[in-house]
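Shape matters. As here.
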Amino acid sequence: MVCCVRCSKGCKIWCGVTAILLVILLVTLVVVLFLTVFKLKDPHITLQSVKLEGFKLQLPTLKLNVSLGIVVTVENPNHGSFTYQNTTAYLHYRGTRVAEAPLHEDTIPARDDHNITTSLTIFAGLTKFRDLSTDFSRGVINFTSTTTFLGKVKVLNLFKMKATVKSKRQKETSQFRNYPSIWHSRVQIRNFNWDRAFLLLSSASFVNTLGCVSHRERDLLLLLPLLRLLSSMDLHVRPDHCLPERKGRKRKLEEDFEDDRQISAPPTGHARDALLSDVKDQVTVLDSTFSWKESDRAAAKRATHALADLAKNEEVVNVIVEGGAIPALVKHLQAPPQAESDRLQRPMPFEHEVEKGSAFALGLLAVKPEHQQLIVDSGALKHLVDLLKRHKNGSTCRAINSLIRRAADAITNLAHENSSIKTRVRMEGGIPPLVHLLEFADTKVQRAAAGALRTLAFKNDENKNQIVQCNALPTLILMLRSEDAAIHYEAVGVIGNLVHSSPNIKKEVLLAGALQPVIGLLSSCCSESQREAALLLGQFAATDSDCKIHIVQRGAVRPLIEMLQSPDVQLKEMSAFALGRLAQDTHNQAGIAHNGGLIPLLKLLDSKNGSLQHNAAFALYGLADNEDNVADFIRVGGIQRLQDGEFIVQATKDCVAKTLKRLEEKIHGRVLNHLLYLMRVSEKAFQRRVALALAHLCSANDQRKIFIDHHGLELLMGLLGSYYNPKQQLDGAVALCKLANKALTLSPVDAAPPSPTPQVYLGEQYVNNATLSDVIFLVEGKRFYAHRICLLASSDAFRAMFDGGYREKEARDIEIPNIRWEVFELMMRFIYTGSVEITLDIAQDLLRAADQYLLEGLKRLCEYTIAQDISLENVASMYELSEAFNATSLRHTCILFILEHFDKLSAKPGHSHLIQRIIPEIQNYFVKALTKANSNNQP
């Protein structure tokens, strides 16, 4: 028994110890598992894509709403699933929250990936709008997203633990903790037509607008061209260490070369040192990998691509050159020497790829003029010309096509606006292979070759001649008929540069059959091709009169007139240029007007673009030379537009003045009779336009015929009486003023009238002299001695006083009750001497006295003096004064003043009443003036 009891106790102790050990082991195992296998690991959050879904611009507060669709992948490396609740992702731009995106509840399986798709809208106010536009122009946008995932991790389907997702690093990773997730990404704008955007922003008519708008409006105007193109953009994520992309390009117009370049701040300080070190590393790679070993070729390819990527940012180009990249890149424009073992390799590793990368990088470096000569001096031209011939070895593959295209583009950029390099290209034999490539099967190669020839031909006669001698014209003319807009645009550009300032080549181009294809390009879908075609037609028509006729006969006029109404300012400018040259032929002048060219050309006179305005004015000058167009000018209101236009440059002002003079010279004979017929039978509005035009353009000899005999004056008076149409009133007043100036050889306000010669001239010494005096006037108690013989000869009033039945006949002393002494003395002095100095302060009283005593000569002198003081404020009272004292000359002067200053006078109160009151007198005045003028001109 004792033994059994002892065994039982020992067994219990052993079981207890075993249980304790098992518990400890189990706890240890659980702890180890939770610290190792089941430990919460950092999930990886990756931004897969960002896609632009739309944008909205809110006015007038100037807010931009951009909708983005994003896909984020969350990789859960844990052995437990994670179920998170509904949450929100916040997007920050430059430290400011600009968007929110809802994220709905979901579960991420254990050790699995999970895609989260959502959309968000960026709300950018004015300040961020400017910053956003700057990043757009750089091609890179930096956003920061902050998201907190609140949920539970389920382990072994037994335990659930609360957790929060947060990214600790500023890239694409995150881990479970109690604070938000932060990931950073750099979004690059690809497939974006930067050339189109910069072309829109650099237009003349657009830049001229910026000077007259507010800062807020200017921000909007500068960004609108970019916003118009946003809908065609694709956004792709790229790593942080990559640089913004820029694509170097050549010029777009004959004399305007534009680079499709990225604008960003140049690197400084540590960033510059790091960049320079990176460049030197790539140069070292290139210097040490000039062989056909596959590893060397791969390394060289990566190095050329890295340098090209860096060179896409123009601000770092100087650093790349400083790092010695040019000699290394030039070296790799040629294939490495082949060893015996290399010749057995087929295909060769990375064949053509390294050379292509080198040519591309050098082309980007050549966009800076100071680097062009450095590249050429390093021997690049010879190798580039050799690359143009790579296809002749019989192989045709995409790599060769791309290589040739890059070589042609590099030559284009090297020769851009550099006459010496253009000559070097010719001397290196670069023109014949470029001409040969115009017939290449790959259209991109054709386009690149044409672009290079276009640059080489610009302002270089020797290059032009060699291009023609290489028989490029037939192929170029075939390219003009291509349906590919990029092809025919480059072709017409080459021909345009060949023809410019080269009459002999122009003849060869026409003989080769270029005229009809160029005319066909006027209807191209490509506005740049249309513009180049219009410019080329203007060059064709500049000197050859037969060519002018042929261009019109082959159907160029209608599309050119349609182009005048395009929103593209440069397109309108070139169209007006071509029409101006075509309008130097008499029959073309009538044809252009008949096809509706007058109205759009006249509208272009309102343009704020000086060059466009001048081209339109020159075309109108040509059309005005044809008598058949005069009536059309008047019918569409052309005379008023020419007279009222505000012209920017002096040359345009002179051209418009010559146009009006040319039209004026046509107003006689057949043209005048036609206009008089229209003024009689047409609608009232057209009749008035004819009357207005004739008032400005007719000769003085025809005024009575037009305005009295054919009632043109009534039409003008009708305009003046149009109280509810101020513009018509003003036009009528200006026309009447012009008519009066032609009718009168000397206006009353121009000079003082001569004093009449008195019939009895006694002289100054007898004024108020008692000697031989036979009559005394009592004025204000003072005695004034006079002589009857002098008074009798001076006026009918004194003759009636002394020879009639009045009491003054026999009186010795005569009292003058209503005239001041100073006025009476001046009046008597005029009677005795025939002249007197009249001051403004006494002129009106003296006029009253002169009218009372019928002294016409003195009245005219008084009227002249008073007329010098006529102003907008007193013209109404002056007119009343002229009526009160029958001062005809003063009344006529008031009428002319009112007509001359009608625009300013119309703003004064009582203006309408005054005009209504004087219209009958105005008509009487013109009837007399025109009749008198016509009588004076009779032989």
Observations:
- The chain has 46 helices and 16 strands.
- Residues 167-222, 224-261, 746-752 have pLDDT under 50 and may be disordered.
- The first strand starts at residue 44 and ends at 58.
